[in-house]
Structure formats: structure tokens, C-alpha cells
Specification:
Length: about 325
């Protein structure tokens, strides 16, 4: 039987999360064809799985070649696609009930930052805005609408206008979130007049980066990147959003690259040499994500990101697997 989606967003304790995770695993093991075949290829009997740590995580690469959905999905889905590099195969996520996504990102945002109506949302997301199918654009566009602020909106290459808007909102004492793809934020920060830099002028502005350099600029280590952005924007910390096409939930960092998940999302770290072995805290390995909001596709995803989990449940993203497929992809044979 399919677990109730309302239970996902009412999770409030570790025991609740564990019970619901196992229930969703059992449901998806039977009703998600791709995941079921993957488990069969591994020789896994779902009824023998008793703990989250025992659940096999589906390699994220399957979203590039398969439609990941449960059999109960009948209506026409919204299909979100990844950006990827030129010529690369895009990941596709068929979202049959977009209201689940809407509930996930709104509640996740408000748990991290408070009521959306308190903010003006400014978005600098050129790489995403210039293509179709971006789940990030869908989320930010809806948050802009829900903020109900006259100055909320998207920006593309009009940096002077955006800088003027930021100055105006700060002068008004308006709480503002500037969410931008990383390379565009670096570009924007370099456009600020020199006298503005490092002055701490933006006490009411939260600068949030996501998406990386997209091949537009030289990659930078997080400490160097955030130091440059802090100086450029005159803020004390750079926030970050961790999300992806294949997930319906996001984790947020309020500085120092430490991310926190909403209650229905959890990170586990797998051994890079043994992808079915879960590492203890403070060890670096591959990031596995439990996203219970993915109830209509697969909630157990092995990403290509490298990271480290801390004892308090927060996690760091330390890099990515380079040009390598996560082991296990060849187990799906139709």
C-alpha cells in the first residue's frame, strides 16, 4: 500500500523517519519498475531490509536512460531535466504530482528561513532561465510569486539594475534573498563599485549560491569562493542551496558550507570502494540521499557528489566523482 504523502511532511523524529522510509522502500521496491529490477539484479529481497542503512540506493545515472516512476502514476507528468554540459545526456525526472514538489520546497524554505511573505526574492539564474525544464526555475518562480513582493523577480544580464535594486531594498530594511548560479554571482560581485566592497553594507541581504561555475569560470574551492563573494557583496556569510533535478527536496547552508536537511530528507555517506557500505560520521565518501518527497519515483538516490556527514546531521559537499560511473549501473538488464 502506498504511504500517505501527508505523513512525509509531518515527520518530526528519527524513529518516525525510519519507519516511513522502510514503508516507502517496500512500496517502491514493488511499484517502481526500474528500482525493482535493480534490486533483483543485486539479489536483494526487499522483505529482508530492516534498516535504512541496508537499503540499496539507486545510482543517479539511471535518470539519464530510464523513466523512474511508480506504477501507480497515470496522469501526464511534468518532466524536469538537468542542465548538463553540451552534448551530455540529460537526466529526466517525471513528476506526476507537482503539488508534492511545491509543498516540499515551500515547507523546506520556511523551516530554514521563515515565512516567504517576509522576503523579497531576487533571482540571477541565467544558465537555468535560458532553457526549458529546470526544476530550480520552477521552484524560484513559485517562491517569487508567493513572496507577493512587488520587487521580486528574475534578472539576466542587467547587473546595474540588480545592483540598484539591492541598494534600494537594503536602504528600506527589506529582508531580501538573492539566489544565483555561482558564476553569475561572482560576475555580479565584481561589478560592485570598489567603495562598496567589504563594507558590510548588506545587513538585510542573504546571498545564496547554487549550481556551480557551469564551465563559465575557473572552479574555486569553497573557502576561496565564499571569501571572494563575501568581500564583493559586503556580507558576512554566503548561503548555499543543495538540490538537483532528481530530488524534490533541498538542503540549505547558512555559511561555512554546512548543509542541513528538512525532516523528510537524510544524507548517508557510502564507501567509494564499496558502494553498498555506509560509512560512519566524519568520513569522506559518496553522498546518498533519502528524499521521502520522491514518493512517486525513487526516494533512495546515490549521487555523484562526494561529502562528509557530521554527528549533528549536517553535511558538507566536497566535490564530485570525475568522469566515472557509480558501480551498479550495469545491473539493470531488461
Amino acid at each position: 500500500m502506498k504511504p500517505n504523502i501527508d505523513d512525509v511532511f509531518n515527520v518530526s523524529s528519527t524513529p518516525q523517519f525510519e519507519v516511513l522510509s522502510l514503508a516507502i522502500f517496500g512500496y517502491q521496491a514493488q511499484n517502481c519498475k526500474v528500482y525493482s529490477l535493480y534490486l533483483k539484479g543485486l539479489g536483494i529481497s526487499p522483505e529482508n531490509i530492516k534498516k535504512i542503512e541496508e537499503i540499496p540506493f539507486l545510482p543517479i545515472e539511471f535518470f539519464k536512460t530510464q523513466e523512474i516512476k511508480t506504477d501507480s502514476v497515470e496522469n501526464n507528468p511534468i518532466v524536469f531535466t538537468s542542465s548538463g554540459t553540451t552534448g551530455a545526456v540529460q537526466s529526466k525526472h517525471s513528476v506526476s504530482d507537482v503539488s508534492v514538489y511545491e509543498k516540499s520546497y515551500l515547507k523546506g524554505f520556511e523551516l530554514a528561513y521563515g515565512k516567504i511573505e517576509d522576503y523579497c526574492i531576487l533571482a540571477l539564474l541565467p544558465s537555468y532561465l535560458e532553457r526549458n525544464g529546470s526544476s530550480l526555475i520552477y521552484m524560484v518562480e513559485d517562491l517569487i510569486k508567493k513572496s507577493n513582493h512587488a520587487d521580486s523577480g528574475f534578472y539576466l544580464n542587467n547587473y546595474d539594475e540588480l545592483i540598484s535594486k539591492l541598494n534600494l531594498l537594503e536602504a528600506r530594511g527589506q529582508k531580501t534573498i538573492l539566489i544565483g548560479v555561482t558564476y553569475a554571482l561572482v560576475d555580479l560581485s565584481e561589478q560592485f563599485p570598489l567603495w562598496k566592497r567589504g563594507q558590510g553594507d548588506f545587513a538585510n541581504v542573504t546571498v545564496m549560491e547554487t549550481g556551480g561555475m557551469k564551465g563559465k569560470r575557473k572552479e574555486m574551492v569553497r573557502e576561496e569562493l565564499h571569501a571572494a563573494l563575501c568581500e564583493g557583496f559586503g556580507v558576512n556569510a554566503i548561503h548555499s542551496e543543495y538540490g538537483m533535478t532528481e530530488l524534490l527536496s533541498q538542503a540549505y547552508s547558512k555559511g561555512n558550507g554546512m548543509f542541513d536537511c528538512p525532516p523528510w530528507m537524510k544524507i548517508l555517506i557510502r564507501d567509494t570502494n564499496d558502494p553498498f557500505s555506509i560509512l560512519p560520521t566524519n568520513k569522506t565518501g559518496g553522498i546518498n540521499v533519502v528524499d521521502l518527497a520522491n514518493i512517486n519515483s525513487c526516494s533512495f538516490i546515490a549521487t555523484q557528489d562526494l561529502g562528509k556527514l557530521h554527528a549533528n546531521g549536517s553535511f558538507e559537499v566536497l566535490g564530485r566523482f570525475d568522469n566515472s560511473d557509480i558501480r551498479g549501473c550495469n545491473l539493470l538488464i531488461e
